[in-house]
UniProtKB/TrEMBL annotation:
Domain Response regulatory, first and last residues per copy: 7-123
Record keyword Hydrolase present: yes
Superkingdom of origin organism: Bacteria
Signal sequence bounds: none
Residues the record lists as 4-aspartylphosphate modifications: 56
Name this polypeptide is given: SpoIIE family protein phosphatase
Length: 410
């Protein structure tokens, strides 16, 4: 019969009653401990709690109910089953015993078969309780292990965030009278958006906005790679530049840059990621702007006279198909014109009605921004207004980034 219950404590001030109960219990294979009072039983329980307690209700000194209450206050890792023994005259007080912490009760004189049945029921309950405790212990251990792993990952992600931020060392830079400002807001520790700018010499500027497919670590690793391909410090690594006459660097045409990046990505087997991009170069003397759009949202020109214009025809993302042509287009900027490159974290932002912001909504946000703001202030204002219309239910589901070019001549 031994299962979860192995040790039984019999508490009764009657020596005869203890002997009768102990005899049956030993015959069934239990280890029996006896106590003649509640006080003596408490000392035994403090030293080594039993699996089952059989306690008389009426005893001099500490009653069975008082003993039960005190027993339940003991701190123990294991639960013990408690049966109160009572006479028929105390039957109406059974509820009091259960409230005190007893699990069951038996009417005296105790019937041997009924006692065995009640112990079997208690054994099943204890077995399930201890199995549950063991599983909870395993879960607690697993949760502790997960917390350690999470803390390590969180630490690594914070370091990765610093590394990714180093890809955009400056958020604004003047190029003569003109200026480029950058915005980069990952939806997590790290993200798959990348913005940047570089200049190989006077009056020549290149800038871009990139959005790698997916989110998280894989996308962030790809942005780190692209950051080296379009480095603002190491021109010899920058695929958007070429060395001429061994004397200076020149900006390559945007369509050639897109084709080079596409061939490099396609050549890397095992890489399933692709990215969208707008890359542009501008001659600050003439205001001529040449661009390539590879699946990225349409660049937005904010003219000095107040008109607005989306540029480009879409194009194919980089890294999807080999040997595809990328079409270049151009426009001329006048002094006072501004250009906004942005990721789909803006246009696909979920609103409170469940719909997306879309390009039309972006125009409304731009119109709401304070006029005549400088680049950094304009981007901060634009992102703040986006956060105000963003659905609280969905929040920021995607990375948000932008490149803002203010043309004011050479």
């Amino acid at each position: 019969m031994l299962g979860a219950i192995r040790t039984v404590l019999v508490v009764d001030d009657s020596r005869l009653q203890r002997r009768i109960l102990a005899s049956s219990l030993k015959k069934w294979g239990f280890i029996v401990v006896e106590a003649d009072s509640g006080e003596a039983a408490m000392e035994i329980c403090k030293a080594d709690p039993p699996d089952l307690v059989l306690s008389d209700w009426m005893m001099p000194g500490m009653s069975g109910v008082e003993f039960c209450e005190a027993f339940r206050q003991l701190k123990s890792e294991r639960y013990s089953y408690f049966i109160l023994l009572t006479s028929k005259s105390e039957k109406n007080e059974v509820a009091q015993g259960l409230d005190a912490g007893a699990d069951d009760f038996l009417i005296k004189p105790v019937n041997s078969d009924e006692l065995r049945a009640r112990i079997s029921a208690g054994d099943r309950i204890l077995g399930m309780q201890r199995e549950l405790s063991a599983k909870n212990s395993l879960i607690a251990t697993a949760l502790d292990d997960l917390k350690v792993a999470h803390d390590a990952i969180d630490k690594d992600l914070k370091q990765a965030q610093k590394i990714q931020q180093s890809l955009v060392p400056e958020l604004t830079r003047d190029f003569g009278a003109s200026r480029i400002s950058l915005l980069l807001k990952p939806c997590g520790h790290i993200g798959g958006d990348l913005v940047g700018m570089f200049s190989p010499g006077l009056n020549r500027v290149g800038f871009y906005s990139i959005d790698v497919s997916g989110h998280g670590i894989t996308s962030a690793m790809m942005t780190a790679r692209l950051g080296s391909y379009l480095s603002s410090h190491y021109f010899e690594q920058n695929v958007a530049m070429e060395r001429r006459f061994n004397r200076f660097y020149a900006l390559r045409q945007p369509e050639d840059v897109a084709a080079t990046l596409n061939s490099r990505l396609i050549a890397d087997t095992g890489i399933e990621e692709y990215f969208t991009m707008v890359y542009g170069i501008v001659d600050l003397r003439s205001g001529v702007l040449k661009m390539v759009q590879a699946g990225h949202p349409h660049p937005l020109v904010l003219r000095q006279d107040g008109t607005k214009e989306f540029l480009g025809e879409g194009g194919v993302p980089i890294g999807l198909l080999p040997d595809i042509p990328f079409e270049q287009f151009e426009t001329t900027l006048e002094v006072g014109d501004r250009l906004l490159l942005y990721s789909d974290g803006f246009t696909e932002c979920r609103l409170e009605n469940g719909e997306m912001l879309e390009p039309e909504g972006l125009l409304d946000l731009v119109d709401d921004c304070e006029p005549n703001q400088g680049g950094p202030e304009f981007l901060d204002d634009l992102f703040w207004r986006l956060s105000q219309v963003m659905s609280p239910e969905y929040g920021m589901e995607d990375d948000v980034s932008a490149t803002f070019f203010e043309y004011n001549g050479p």
